[in-house]
Amino acid sequence: MNHRGWLYVLFSYLPAFAVLALITQGFQKPVSAVWLLLPLAFAICFQIILLQCIFCRSIKDLINAIRRAINGDYRARFDCDESSPLKPLGIVYNQLMGCVESQTDELSENRILQNQMYENEKIYRSALELTCERVFEADLSHNRILYGYEKYAQTFPYLNTKIYDEMISAIAAHSVFQGDAKEFRETFARSSLLKSFHRLRTPEVAMDYRLILDDGSCAWYSASVIFLNSSSQTGLKIIGYIKNIDERKKQELEILNESQKDGLTGLFNKKVTESMIDGYLADKGKDGHHAMIMLDIDNFKYINDSFGHTQGDAALTHVSHQLQHLFRTSDIVGRVGGDEFLILMKNVSDTNALFEKLHSMQSEFHKIRLEDTSYRLHSSIGVSLYPDDDTSYASLFKKADMALYYSKAHGKDQFCLYADHYEKDGTPKSGVPETLPRPLRLLDTEEETGRPHNEA
User: Which CATH number fits domain 132-250: 3.30.450.20, 3.40.1080.10, 3.40.50.300, 3.40.109.10?
Assistant: First the structure.
């Protein structure tokens, strides 16, 4: 008990001492024990009255503290004397209010941050809507669209759901170009985005794709999805925006296409031809049978010198057009030198089909006429086979080139298969005649070629 408590106790006995002094005439006259009960009763009454005053005041202070807390003052505390019976209750109450104040401050800070985030999202969304065709927000945790569904429903009338995954699947099935639909669905599927944001920590996922328009044509669009926030209340929240990039994308593709093509003939240039063939043989074509065909125009220098370089360019252009016509779009056709062309004829079923294609090439070349001349083009051709002769681009190219020069060295205007005249290591086969068999030569006379037969 502190000093204030002792003072209260001493003060409660003062009335009893005063009564006792009065009865005993200043503690001089003895009295019976019965008379001593009177000052004792006074002491007990005064202690009861004093305790009631102290207790009532503590109760009043506690009630006031509670009322302040109810009115929002979470800093309200209850203080009482150490001797007060409400002291343990006061300690617990003050601890409770301390926790409430701490939690309230944290909630207030979170609410301020959420409000700021919400305002920032509104500003960001408004800015995107000025430059984008469509903007949406979604809660991936609950798989639902939060904002932007109405505009999507106007653009895609078949949509009838706000479930995010179902909306992505419907757009991929009905409006995305078939060649892009699978990648579109896999890129923006809910499971893919959750993996990108949670496991890979990717801040943004984007894809360029072709969208089918009302008239059946396609236009290039870019879709991007950005991670916004994640919490127990809102889940994983994202914002997506879609831009029309058709004009820019077509310009980029045109520039890319021009960089890959030979400027004169429109065929793939040497570097791209090599890259495409090498990539195909190492991947999709590694289990197939293919023919690498190399050809050049016979006596091309003679054409340039006799008829001029304009006619030489015309000859190259005519040959390139015939090659594009003769081969499938899946085959790879390129110009790899001045008058040299390289073709990868994919998935050759048998040798007869290859021979038929080679004969067709030479027949079509003979139909070409240079302007104001009767000169007919002819070419020498060399062929190597995958995988019979080799499996790498470099080796097949070298062996096709060897077969080509064998054709040129033995009369020109013919085709030669590498395997017919060389071993796999490049050494000439024994017993091979100095000249090729006659059936491989299509033109022999000066009348047919429009030039002396022995002209180089």
Answer: 3.30.450.20
Task: Name the residue among 304, 361, 283 with its Cα closest to residue 327.
Answer: 361
Cα atoms in the 13 Å half-sphere on the side-chain side of 323: 28
Amino acid, res. 402: M
Cβ atoms within 10 A of the Cβ of 82, count? 9
Omega before 433 cis (within 30°)? no
Write out pLDDT tens, residues 33-66. 555 666 667 666 766 666 666 566 667 777 777 7
- 261-449: CATH, from 3.40.190.10, 3.30.70.270, 3.40.50.1370, 3.10.450.50: 3.30.70.270
- 294 contact partners, CB below 8 Å, separation of at least 6: 336, 340, 341, 342, 343, 381, 382, 383, 397, 400, 401, 403, 404
The residue behind tokens 């006259």 is: 29
Tokens standing for residue 262: 């030979």
Task: Give dist(CA 430, CA 419) in Å, integer.
Answer: 12
**Token reading at 119:** 């305002």
**CA separation (Å) from 71 to 75, 76, 94?**
11, 10, 16
Beta-carbon contacts of residue 267 (< 8 Å; ≥ 6 apart): 261, 273, 320, 323, 324, 333, 334, 335, 341
Decide if 338 contacts 300 (C-beta within 8 A). yes
What are the domain boundaries of the chain? 1-129, 132-250, 261-449
Task: Give the pLDDT confidence of 97-151 residue by residue, as tens digits.
Answer: 778 777 776 666 666 666 565 566 666 566 566 678 888 989 998 999 988 899 8
Are 97 and 72 a contacting pair, CB within 8 Å? Answer: no
Q: Among 416, 412, 414, 415, which Cα is nearest to 451's? A: 412
